[in-house]
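Listing S7. Sequence submitted for prediction.
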Amino acid sequence: MAVDIDKIRKDFPILSRRVRGKPLVYLDNAATSQKPRAVIEALSNFYENTNANVHRGIHTLSEEATALYEEARKKVARFVHAPSPESVIFTRNTTESINLVAHAWGRKFINPGDEILLTGMEHHSNLVPWQILAQEKGAVLKFVEVRPDGTLNLEDLDRNAGPRTKLIAVTHVSNAIGTINPIRRFAQVAKSLGALLLVDAAQSVPHIPVDMRVLGCDFLAFSAHKMMGPTGVGVLIAHEEMLEKMSPFLGGGDMIREVWLEKATWNELPYKFEAGTPNFAGVAAFGAALDYLQGLGMDNVRAHEQELIGYALKSLLQIEGITIYGPMDSAQRSGVVSFNLGTIHPHDLGTVLDEDGIAVRAGHHCCQPLMRRLGINGTTRASVYVYNTKEEIDKFAKSLDRARTLFGVCAPSPTDRPAKPSAKKEGR
Protein backbone atom coordinates (compact mmCIF):
# COMPACT_ATOMS: atom_id res chain seq x y z
CA MET A 1 0.00 0.00 0.00
CA ALA A 2 1.47 3.34 -1.05
CA VAL A 3 1.58 6.12 1.51
CA ASP A 4 -0.35 9.35 0.93
CA ILE A 5 2.51 11.84 1.07
CA ASP A 6 0.34 14.94 0.80
CA LYS A 7 -1.74 13.76 3.75
CA ILE A 8 1.36 12.84 5.76
CA ARG A 9 3.02 16.21 5.16
CA LYS A 10 -0.01 18.01 6.59
CA ASP A 11 0.65 16.20 9.87
CA PHE A 12 4.02 17.96 10.30
CA PRO A 13 3.64 21.67 11.13
CA ILE A 14 7.29 22.54 10.54
CA LEU A 15 7.11 21.47 6.89
CA SER A 16 4.98 24.53 6.14
CA ARG A 17 7.61 27.04 7.25
CA ARG A 18 10.02 28.94 5.03
CA VAL A 19 13.78 29.30 5.43
CA ARG A 20 15.53 32.30 3.87
CA GLY A 21 12.34 32.99 1.95
CA LYS A 22 12.21 29.48 0.47
CA PRO A 23 9.99 26.52 1.40
CA LEU A 24 11.83 24.29 3.86
CA VAL A 25 13.30 21.12 2.34
CA TYR A 26 14.33 19.06 5.35
CA LEU A 27 16.95 16.48 4.38
CA ASP A 28 18.71 16.01 7.72
CA ASN A 29 16.58 13.17 9.03
CA ALA A 30 19.55 10.99 9.99
CA ALA A 31 20.37 13.64 12.60
CA THR A 32 16.83 13.99 13.90
CA SER A 33 13.34 13.63 12.49
CA GLN A 34 10.53 16.15 12.46
CA LYS A 35 7.53 15.57 14.73
CA PRO A 36 3.92 15.01 13.67
CA ARG A 37 1.18 17.04 15.30
CA ALA A 38 0.04 13.95 17.21
CA VAL A 39 3.38 13.80 19.06
CA ILE A 40 3.49 17.54 19.72
CA GLU A 41 -0.05 17.42 21.09
CA ALA A 42 0.72 14.34 23.20
CA LEU A 43 3.64 16.16 24.83
CA SER A 44 1.62 19.33 25.37
CA ASN A 45 -1.36 17.39 26.68
CA PHE A 46 0.83 15.55 29.17
CA TYR A 47 2.12 18.79 30.68
CA GLU A 48 -1.33 20.40 30.62
CA ASN A 49 -3.32 17.52 32.10
CA THR A 50 -1.19 14.70 33.51
CA ASN A 51 2.14 16.08 34.70
CA ALA A 52 3.33 14.03 37.67
CA ASN A 53 6.22 11.74 38.47
CA VAL A 54 5.93 8.04 37.72
CA HIS A 55 6.13 5.02 40.04
CA ARG A 56 6.20 7.29 43.10
CA GLY A 57 2.70 8.56 43.81
CA ILE A 58 -0.63 7.16 44.93
CA HIS A 59 -2.62 10.07 43.52
CA THR A 60 -4.52 10.09 40.23
CA LEU A 61 -2.04 12.16 38.21
CA SER A 62 0.88 9.90 39.12
CA GLU A 63 -1.12 6.80 38.32
CA GLU A 64 -2.10 8.24 34.92
CA ALA A 65 1.49 9.26 34.16
CA THR A 66 2.74 5.81 35.15
CA ALA A 67 0.14 4.16 32.92
CA LEU A 68 1.26 6.24 29.91
CA TYR A 69 4.92 5.50 30.66
CA GLU A 70 4.40 1.76 30.95
CA GLU A 71 2.08 1.61 27.95
CA ALA A 72 4.84 3.23 25.87
CA ARG A 73 7.18 0.47 27.05
CA LYS A 74 4.72 -2.13 25.78
CA LYS A 75 4.45 -0.30 22.46
CA VAL A 76 8.24 -0.35 22.05
CA ALA A 77 8.29 -4.08 22.75
CA ARG A 78 5.61 -4.72 20.12
CA PHE A 79 7.25 -2.40 17.58
CA VAL A 80 10.53 -4.36 17.42
CA HIS A 81 9.23 -7.71 18.74
CA ALA A 82 11.27 -7.51 21.93
CA PRO A 83 11.33 -10.53 24.26
CA SER A 84 9.01 -8.76 26.74
CA PRO A 85 8.12 -5.28 28.02
CA GLU A 86 10.41 -5.98 30.98
CA SER A 87 13.33 -6.29 28.55
CA VAL A 88 12.84 -2.67 27.42
CA ILE A 89 14.93 -0.09 29.28
CA PHE A 90 14.43 3.64 28.76
CA THR A 91 17.60 5.74 28.59
CA ARG A 92 18.45 9.23 27.29
CA ASN A 93 19.59 8.16 23.81
CA THR A 94 21.36 5.45 21.81
CA THR A 95 24.72 6.61 23.14
CA GLU A 96 23.67 6.05 26.73
CA SER A 97 22.17 2.68 25.85
CA ILE A 98 25.48 1.46 24.42
CA ASN A 99 27.44 2.91 27.34
CA LEU A 100 25.08 1.11 29.71
CA VAL A 101 26.08 -2.20 28.14
CA ALA A 102 29.78 -1.30 28.18
CA HIS A 103 29.62 -0.49 31.89
CA ALA A 104 27.00 -2.85 33.29
CA TRP A 105 27.92 -5.88 31.18
CA GLY A 106 31.46 -5.14 29.98
CA ARG A 107 33.02 -4.29 33.31
CA LYS A 108 31.63 -7.48 34.79
CA PHE A 109 32.25 -9.98 32.01
CA ILE A 110 35.19 -8.70 29.92
CA ASN A 111 38.60 -9.96 31.08
CA PRO A 112 42.20 -9.29 29.99
CA GLY A 113 42.84 -10.73 26.54
CA ASP A 114 39.16 -10.98 25.62
CA GLU A 115 38.28 -9.63 22.20
CA ILE A 116 35.59 -7.19 21.10
CA LEU A 117 34.82 -7.19 17.38
CA LEU A 118 33.62 -3.93 15.82
CA THR A 119 33.42 -2.54 12.29
CA GLY A 120 35.15 0.32 10.52
CA MET A 121 31.91 2.19 9.92
CA GLU A 122 30.73 2.61 13.51
CA HIS A 123 29.44 5.88 14.88
CA HIS A 124 31.76 7.07 17.64
CA SER A 125 29.04 6.08 20.13
CA ASN A 126 29.57 2.43 19.21
CA LEU A 127 33.35 2.74 19.17
CA VAL A 128 34.58 4.98 21.98
CA PRO A 129 32.79 3.10 24.83
CA TRP A 130 34.52 -0.10 23.72
CA GLN A 131 37.87 1.68 23.44
CA ILE A 132 37.48 2.88 27.03
CA LEU A 133 36.44 -0.59 28.20
CA ALA A 134 39.31 -2.30 26.36
CA GLN A 135 41.86 0.09 27.87
CA GLU A 136 40.42 -0.42 31.34
CA LYS A 137 40.13 -4.21 31.17
CA GLY A 138 43.07 -5.11 28.92
CA ALA A 139 40.81 -6.37 26.16
CA VAL A 140 41.62 -6.37 22.44
CA LEU A 141 39.62 -4.57 19.76
CA LYS A 142 39.35 -6.14 16.33
CA PHE A 143 37.59 -4.81 13.26
CA VAL A 144 35.63 -5.73 10.16
CA GLU A 145 36.85 -3.20 7.62
CA VAL A 146 34.89 -1.27 5.01
CA ARG A 147 35.28 -2.07 1.32
CA PRO A 148 35.63 0.68 -1.30
CA ASP A 149 31.96 0.27 -2.24
CA GLY A 150 30.88 1.09 1.32
CA THR A 151 29.96 -2.46 2.34
CA LEU A 152 31.67 -4.50 5.04
CA ASN A 153 34.36 -7.02 4.19
CA LEU A 154 32.76 -10.13 5.64
CA GLU A 155 36.00 -12.06 5.18
CA ASP A 156 37.26 -9.93 8.08
CA LEU A 157 34.33 -11.17 10.14
CA ASP A 158 35.34 -14.79 9.61
CA ARG A 159 39.04 -13.99 10.00
CA ASN A 160 38.87 -11.86 13.15
CA ALA A 161 36.12 -13.58 15.10
CA GLY A 162 37.47 -16.37 17.24
CA PRO A 163 37.36 -18.23 20.55
CA ARG A 164 38.35 -15.10 22.51
CA THR A 165 35.57 -12.98 21.01
CA LYS A 166 33.17 -12.01 23.79
CA LEU A 167 31.15 -9.32 22.01
CA ILE A 168 30.39 -8.23 18.47
CA ALA A 169 29.04 -4.67 18.18
CA VAL A 170 27.82 -3.47 14.79
CA THR A 171 25.63 -0.77 13.33
CA HIS A 172 22.55 -2.01 11.49
CA VAL A 173 22.58 0.99 9.15
CA SER A 174 25.50 3.38 8.69
CA ASN A 175 24.56 6.90 9.70
CA ALA A 176 27.32 8.27 7.46
CA ILE A 177 26.86 6.43 4.15
CA GLY A 178 23.59 4.54 4.56
CA THR A 179 24.84 0.96 4.15
CA ILE A 180 22.45 -1.68 5.49
CA ASN A 181 24.55 -4.39 7.12
CA PRO A 182 23.74 -8.15 7.15
CA ILE A 183 23.01 -8.50 10.86
CA ARG A 184 21.88 -12.11 10.57
CA ARG A 185 25.37 -13.00 9.34
CA PHE A 186 26.92 -11.36 12.41
CA ALA A 187 24.39 -13.12 14.65
CA GLN A 188 25.32 -16.52 13.21
CA VAL A 189 29.01 -15.92 13.87
CA ALA A 190 28.36 -14.64 17.40
CA LYS A 191 26.18 -17.62 18.25
CA SER A 192 28.74 -20.09 16.91
CA LEU A 193 31.35 -18.59 19.24
CA GLY A 194 29.15 -18.13 22.28
CA ALA A 195 29.64 -14.37 21.97
CA LEU A 196 27.03 -11.66 22.40
CA LEU A 197 25.83 -9.34 19.64
CA LEU A 198 24.99 -5.67 20.15
CA VAL A 199 23.24 -3.83 17.32
CA ASP A 200 23.25 -0.05 17.04
CA ALA A 201 19.81 0.39 15.48
CA ALA A 202 19.61 4.19 15.69
CA GLN A 203 19.31 4.45 11.90
CA SER A 204 17.32 1.28 11.24
CA VAL A 205 14.38 1.14 13.64
CA PRO A 206 13.01 4.50 12.38
CA HIS A 207 13.20 3.51 8.72
CA ILE A 208 12.92 -0.23 8.11
CA PRO A 209 10.98 -3.08 9.73
CA VAL A 210 13.04 -4.47 12.62
CA ASP A 211 12.27 -7.76 14.37
CA MET A 212 14.63 -8.73 17.16
CA ARG A 213 13.64 -12.36 16.75
CA VAL A 214 14.85 -12.31 13.15
CA LEU A 215 17.99 -10.27 13.81
CA GLY A 216 19.14 -12.63 16.54
CA CYS A 217 20.89 -9.94 18.56
CA ASP A 218 21.38 -9.82 22.33
CA PHE A 219 21.30 -6.03 22.70
CA LEU A 220 19.39 -3.50 20.58
CA ALA A 221 19.86 0.26 21.01
CA PHE A 222 18.00 3.15 19.39
CA SER A 223 16.54 6.64 20.01
CA ALA A 224 13.07 8.18 19.94
CA HIS A 225 14.00 11.49 18.35
CA LYS A 226 15.04 9.85 15.07
CA MET A 227 11.61 8.21 14.73
CA MET A 228 9.28 11.19 15.19
CA GLY A 229 9.50 11.10 18.99
CA PRO A 230 10.80 13.69 21.45
CA THR A 231 14.45 14.24 22.31
CA GLY A 232 15.95 12.77 25.45
CA VAL A 233 14.49 9.27 25.13
CA GLY A 234 16.58 6.25 24.20
CA VAL A 235 15.95 2.52 24.32
CA LEU A 236 18.04 -0.50 25.22
CA ILE A 237 16.55 -3.96 24.81
CA ALA A 238 18.14 -7.18 26.06
CA HIS A 239 16.97 -10.59 27.20
CA GLU A 240 15.87 -10.58 30.81
CA GLU A 241 18.29 -13.37 31.76
CA MET A 242 21.23 -11.20 30.66
CA LEU A 243 19.87 -8.07 32.34
CA GLU A 244 19.51 -10.01 35.59
CA LYS A 245 23.22 -10.88 35.47
CA MET A 246 24.35 -7.32 34.75
CA SER A 247 25.29 -4.80 37.41
CA PRO A 248 23.35 -1.54 37.69
CA PHE A 249 24.60 1.33 35.55
CA LEU A 250 23.50 4.23 37.77
CA GLY A 251 22.55 4.28 41.43
CA GLY A 252 19.70 6.24 42.98
CA GLY A 253 15.96 6.34 43.32
CA ASP A 254 13.65 3.76 41.72
CA MET A 255 16.44 1.28 40.90
CA ILE A 256 16.59 -0.04 44.47
CA ARG A 257 14.53 -2.56 46.39
CA GLU A 258 15.88 -1.85 49.88
CA VAL A 259 18.65 0.41 51.16
CA TRP A 260 20.68 0.16 54.36
CA LEU A 261 23.57 2.38 55.38
CA GLU A 262 26.10 -0.20 54.24
CA LYS A 263 24.41 -1.81 51.23
CA ALA A 264 21.42 -1.93 48.91
CA THR A 265 19.48 -4.46 46.86
CA TRP A 266 18.16 -3.84 43.37
CA ASN A 267 14.68 -3.40 41.99
CA GLU A 268 13.15 -5.81 39.50
CA LEU A 269 13.54 -5.35 35.76
CA PRO A 270 13.49 -3.01 34.00
CA TYR A 271 13.64 -0.50 36.87
CA LYS A 272 17.02 -1.79 37.99
CA PHE A 273 18.48 0.24 35.10
CA GLU A 274 16.23 3.32 35.32
CA ALA A 275 17.67 5.30 38.22
CA GLY A 276 16.24 8.70 39.04
CA THR A 277 13.39 10.65 37.49
CA PRO A 278 13.05 9.58 33.85
CA ASN A 279 11.87 11.69 30.92
CA PHE A 280 8.32 10.53 31.56
CA ALA A 281 6.72 13.23 29.41
CA GLY A 282 9.00 12.35 26.51
CA VAL A 283 8.29 8.64 26.89
CA ALA A 284 4.54 9.30 26.88
CA ALA A 285 4.87 11.30 23.64
CA PHE A 286 7.13 8.58 22.21
CA GLY A 287 4.15 6.29 22.54
CA ALA A 288 2.25 8.61 20.20
CA ALA A 289 5.14 8.49 17.71
CA LEU A 290 5.05 4.70 17.73
CA ASP A 291 1.30 4.79 17.12
CA TYR A 292 1.85 7.10 14.16
CA LEU A 293 4.51 4.88 12.59
CA GLN A 294 2.43 1.77 13.20
CA GLY A 295 -0.43 3.48 11.41
CA LEU A 296 1.78 4.14 8.39
CA GLY A 297 3.27 0.63 8.43
CA MET A 298 7.04 0.22 8.44
CA ASP A 299 6.95 -1.74 5.18
CA ASN A 300 5.33 1.31 3.58
CA VAL A 301 7.87 3.66 5.15
CA ARG A 302 10.73 1.55 3.79
CA ALA A 303 9.17 1.23 0.33
CA HIS A 304 8.69 4.99 0.01
CA GLU A 305 12.22 5.77 1.19
CA GLN A 306 13.76 3.16 -1.09
CA GLU A 307 11.94 4.60 -4.08
CA LEU A 308 12.97 8.11 -3.06
CA ILE A 309 16.63 7.24 -2.52
CA GLY A 310 16.76 5.43 -5.87
CA TYR A 311 15.37 8.56 -7.49
CA ALA A 312 17.92 10.71 -5.63
CA LEU A 313 20.86 8.53 -6.66
CA LYS A 314 19.77 8.68 -10.29
CA SER A 315 19.32 12.47 -10.15
CA LEU A 316 22.57 13.22 -8.34
CA LEU A 317 24.67 11.04 -10.61
CA GLN A 318 23.72 13.37 -13.46
CA ILE A 319 25.58 16.22 -11.74
CA GLU A 320 29.10 16.69 -13.04
CA GLY A 321 31.83 16.20 -10.44
CA ILE A 322 29.77 14.42 -7.79
CA THR A 323 31.15 11.47 -5.80
CA ILE A 324 28.62 9.38 -3.87
CA TYR A 325 29.74 7.05 -1.08
CA GLY A 326 28.11 3.76 -0.19
CA PRO A 327 26.24 1.14 -2.21
CA MET A 328 24.60 2.29 -5.43
CA ASP A 329 21.82 -0.27 -5.08
CA SER A 330 18.93 1.34 -3.17
CA ALA A 331 18.04 -2.08 -1.75
CA GLN A 332 21.38 -2.10 0.11
CA ARG A 333 21.12 1.34 1.62
CA SER A 334 18.81 3.40 3.76
CA GLY A 335 17.57 6.88 2.93
CA VAL A 336 21.04 8.40 3.30
CA VAL A 337 23.11 9.88 0.46
CA SER A 338 26.59 11.02 1.46
CA PHE A 339 28.67 12.76 -1.19
CA ASN A 340 31.24 15.32 -2.21
CA LEU A 341 30.80 17.70 -5.12
CA GLY A 342 34.00 18.36 -6.99
CA THR A 343 36.38 20.44 -4.89
CA ILE A 344 33.70 22.16 -2.82
CA HIS A 345 34.16 21.78 0.92
CA PRO A 346 31.12 20.10 2.54
CA HIS A 347 30.53 23.01 4.92
CA ASP A 348 30.58 25.49 2.04
CA LEU A 349 28.17 23.32 0.09
CA GLY A 350 25.85 23.02 3.08
CA THR A 351 25.80 26.81 3.37
CA VAL A 352 24.76 27.23 -0.26
CA LEU A 353 22.02 24.63 0.15
CA ASP A 354 20.76 26.43 3.24
CA GLU A 355 20.40 29.60 1.16
CA ASP A 356 17.88 27.64 -0.90
CA GLY A 357 16.02 26.45 2.21
CA ILE A 358 17.54 22.97 2.09
CA ALA A 359 18.72 21.42 5.36
CA VAL A 360 21.52 18.84 5.14
CA ARG A 361 24.43 17.76 7.34
CA ALA A 362 28.10 18.43 6.57
CA GLY A 363 31.16 17.02 8.33
CA HIS A 364 32.48 13.66 9.46
CA HIS A 365 29.12 12.59 10.98
CA CYS A 366 30.83 11.24 14.12
CA CYS A 367 32.56 8.64 11.92
CA GLN A 368 36.14 9.87 11.62
CA PRO A 369 37.69 6.41 11.11
CA LEU A 370 35.27 5.75 8.25
CA MET A 371 36.08 9.10 6.65
CA ARG A 372 39.79 8.26 6.81
CA ARG A 373 39.08 4.86 5.27
CA LEU A 374 37.35 6.64 2.38
CA GLY A 375 40.28 9.04 2.03
CA ILE A 376 38.29 12.16 2.90
CA ASN A 377 37.75 14.51 5.83
CA GLY A 378 34.00 14.70 5.52
CA THR A 379 30.96 14.70 3.25
CA THR A 380 27.70 16.46 2.68
CA ARG A 381 24.88 14.17 3.76
CA ALA A 382 21.25 14.25 2.70
CA SER A 383 18.83 11.90 4.44
CA VAL A 384 15.15 11.38 3.74
CA TYR A 385 12.11 10.24 5.69
CA VAL A 386 8.60 9.22 4.82
CA TYR A 387 7.42 12.84 4.45
CA ASN A 388 9.98 13.79 1.78
CA THR A 389 9.06 13.97 -1.91
CA LYS A 390 10.58 13.64 -5.36
CA GLU A 391 9.89 17.34 -5.88
CA GLU A 392 12.16 18.08 -2.94
CA ILE A 393 14.86 15.88 -4.45
CA ASP A 394 14.53 17.91 -7.67
CA LYS A 395 15.01 21.16 -5.71
CA PHE A 396 18.00 19.60 -3.97
CA ALA A 397 19.61 18.56 -7.27
CA LYS A 398 18.96 22.00 -8.76
CA SER A 399 20.60 23.67 -5.77
CA LEU A 400 23.63 21.40 -6.09
CA ASP A 401 23.95 22.36 -9.73
CA ARG A 402 23.81 26.02 -8.71
CA ALA A 403 26.58 25.42 -6.18
CA ARG A 404 28.71 23.68 -8.79
CA THR A 405 28.38 26.68 -11.09
CA LEU A 406 28.98 29.12 -8.25
CA PHE A 407 32.19 27.49 -7.00
CA GLY A 408 33.55 26.12 -10.25
CA VAL A 409 36.92 24.54 -9.49
CA CYS A 410 38.15 27.34 -7.22
CA ALA A 411 37.49 25.81 -3.82
CA PRO A 412 40.15 23.51 -2.31
CA SER A 413 39.52 19.79 -2.19
CA PRO A 414 37.80 18.41 0.93
CA THR A 415 40.92 16.29 1.48
CA ASP A 416 43.19 19.34 1.43
CA ARG A 417 41.93 20.91 4.61
CA PRO A 418 40.22 19.67 7.77
CA ALA A 419 36.57 20.27 8.50
CA LYS A 420 35.93 23.78 9.74
CA PRO A 421 35.96 24.09 13.53
CA SER A 422 32.54 24.58 15.04
CA ALA A 423 31.09 25.02 18.48
CA LYS A 424 28.25 22.75 17.46
CA LYS A 425 28.46 19.09 18.42
CA GLU A 426 28.35 16.59 15.60
CA GLY A 427 25.31 14.33 15.79
CA ARG A 428 24.40 11.12 14.10
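Caption to Listing S7: primary sequence and predicted C-alpha coordinates for the chain studied. The chain has two domains: 5-30+297-407, 40-294. Confidence is low (pLDDT under 50) at residues 409-424.
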